[in-house]
Design a protein that fits this description.
single chain; 334 residues; alpha/beta; Rossmann fold; seven-stranded parallel beta sheet; binds NADP nicotinamide-adenine-dinucleotide phosphate
Length: 334
């Protein structure tokens, strides 16, 4: 019998990290998951995953703690670096609050990977590191050659630009390790806005997108274009690029591109609730606002497939009703 493969996942308790661990455990991997607080209720779901009792070991560490990361990664053949500070779009944050964990955290994870002599590292980047490039030809879908321009990002308004900057700089940092004479290969995956059911009890920034539309957090919204992908398809993409030795460089992971008004129309037809936004204002054309096409052809060529948007919406609503984030229709009507 072959020995089970041991891999480490940073940011184990988060939205994407949890689904990734679920899939890895279901496929027989032994998983070392890093969490900042193993005793926190928000990580309790991890121990309930199938095979977790035997095959999931949680390590308490922060991205700034190199020694802690070395302990978590020791003995692993592969690492999935998922952890990152992910602010909500309107949060007020300082630049270093977002960029420091991303850049120093990536450096520390890579140092720990080198020390442990791992074979393969998969880093979760984001389309934030792809789309902020005003020089890209408008009629040509953005592909893996397209990089966000840090100077352009700095000219944008709002603190969310620090997240765009952090993801761009951290992905560049990670891929540079391919040229540093290490034994391991780094592959990055750049998911678009990730939606779908969650495993963790607390809501994360991106899965509140559909919830806010259903609950009616705004009467009027800017009709920007959204690039969306299901969290389960992101987790599958991460396993796919990990397992496939042909996988090299970066991979855009996006399933749907549509205006927010079209998404609302679709949701309305499936769940006719009263609280959807009533008005859509015209969105200014800008690459960071999603008005360019994105290509996931490179990932599809590896065999990646994705769920229908309807399935993602249905499973999200089931999840929101189960967690109590959204009242069930009969409760909402009474
Ligand atoms: N969700 C999306 O739409 C989306 C799209 C593209 C890319 N991504 C990327 O996907 C990854 C996961 O995002 P997510 O949506 O799953 O976010 P999430 O649910 O907020 O999870 C983030 C995880 O990172 C951990 N973390 C944050 N700061 C840390 C630090 N200093 N040290 C150690 N751990 C730290 C968090 O731990 P705590 O629980 O202790 O805070 C949490 O487990 C991130 O790299 C994000 O940039 C997300």
């Amino acid at each position: 019998m072959t020995e089970k493969q041991r891999v480490c996942v940073t940011g184990a308790g988060g939205y994407i990290g949890s689904w990734l661990i679920k899939y890895l455990l279901s496929r027989g991997y032994i998983v070392h998951g890093t969490v900042r607080d193993p005793g926190d209720e928000k990580n309790a779901h991890l121990k309930k995953l199938e095979n977790a009792a035997e095959n999931l070991i949680l390590f308490k560490t922060d991205l700034f703690d190199l020694e802690g990361l070395c302990s978590a990664i020791a003995g692993c053949t592969g690492v999935f670096h998922v952890a990152s500070f992910v602010p909500a779009f309107h949060d007020t944050v300082a630049e270093e609050e977002v960029t420091e964990p991303a850049i120093t955290g990536t450096k520390n994870v890579m140092k720990a990977c080198a020390a442990a002599k791992v074979k393969r590292v998969v880093v979760v980047s984001s389309i934030a590191a792809v789309v902020c490039n005003p020089k890209w030809h408008k009629d040509h879908p953005m592909d893996e050659e397209c990089w966000s321009d840090p100077e352009f990002i700095r000219t944008l308004e709002g603190d969310f630009r620090y997240y765009l900057l952090a993801k761009t700089l951290a992905e560049r940092e990670a891929l540079e390790y391919n040229n540093k004479g290490n034994e391991f290969e780094v592959v990055t995956v750049c998911p678009s806005i990730t939606i779908g059911p969650r495993l963790q009890s607390t809501i994360n920034a991106s899965s509140s997108l559909l919830l806010n539309l259903l609950k009616g957090s705004a009467e009027s919204v800017e009709d920007a274009t959204y690039h969306l992908v299901d969290v389960r398809d992101v987790a599958e993409a991460l396993v796919l690029v990990y397992k496939n030795p042909e996988a090299k460089g970066r991979y855009i992971c996006n399933s749907y591109t549509l205006k927010i008004s079209a998404l609302v129309e679709k949701m309305k037809s499936m769940y006719p609730r009263p609280n959807y936004p009533k008005r859509f204002t015209e969105a200014e054309e800008a690459p960071q606002k999603g008005d360019r096409m994105l290509s996931s052809e490179k990932l599809k060529r590896l065999g990646w497939n994705y769920k229908t948007l309807e399935e993602t919406i249905v499973d999200s609503v089931i999840c929101f009703e189960k967690t109590g984030d959204l009242p069930k229709p009969e409760a909402a009507a009474s």
